[in-house]
């Protein structure tokens, strides 16, 4: 099991090697945020059970590095990153995807990256 600290550390190293300090901050932050988003979404869909062992953090890290933070809302990424057998209860991937989208929107809005203030949405 790879935890949040480990995924953040690996992503920071990856970003630093590629783009220096700015890349380390961006890559580490995005990968860690992606992991936490999936974790929160899965927890809310399974009534707060311990879900850390069911999440493949490496898969999330790879998806976020390739496609950005929005990759955690992709059904394919969630299917690959979540091992339903380790959750301990039935998982509705539609609910997890919806929760991940909500969490991602909250992260983007709080970071100032969202366009909701322009009135276009």
Describe the structure.
The structure is a single chain. Among the domains are: 14-45; 48-84, no CATH class. It has 121 residues and is mostly helical. It is globular and about 40 Å long. The longest helix has 42 residues, at 4-45. It contains 4 helices and no strands. Residues 109-121 have a biased composition (Low complexity). Residues 71-121 are annotated as: Disordered. Keywords: Membrane, Transmembrane, Transmembrane helix.
**Average pLDDT value?**
75
Shape: globular
Order of secondary-structure elements: HHHH
Poorly predicted regions = 113-121
Gap from first CA to last CA:
39 Å
The largest sheet is: none
Helix content: 55-70%
How many beta-strand runs?
0
Put simply, the count of helices is 4
Radius of gyration, whole Å: 14 Å
Fraction in beta strands: under 5%
Structural class: mainly alpha
Q: Secondary-structure blueprint of this entry?
A:
Elements (H helix, E strand, L loop, with lengths): L3 H42 L11 H11 L7 H7 L11 H19 L10
Helix pairs in contact: 1-2, 1-4, 2-3
Keywords: Membrane, Transmembrane, Transmembrane helix
Short description:
By secondary structure, this protein is mainly α.
Features:
single chain; 121 residues; mainly alpha; transmembrane; transmembrane helix; membrane
């Amino acid at each position: 099991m790879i935890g949040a600290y480990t995924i953040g550390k690996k992503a920071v190293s990856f970003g630093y090697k590629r783009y220096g300090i700015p890349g380390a901050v961006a890559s580490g932050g995005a990968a860690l945020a992606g992991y936490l988003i999936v974790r929160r979404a899965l927890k809310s869909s399974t009534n707060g059970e311990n879900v850390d062992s069911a999440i493949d953090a490496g898969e999330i890290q790879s998806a976020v590095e390739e496609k950005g933070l929005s990759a955690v809302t992709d059904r394919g990424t969630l299917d690959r990153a979540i091992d339903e057998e380790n959750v301990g209860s039935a998982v509705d991937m539609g609910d997890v995807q919806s929760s991940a989208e909500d969490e991602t929107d909250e992260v983007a809005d709080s970071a100032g990256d969202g366009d909701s203030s322009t009135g276009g949405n």
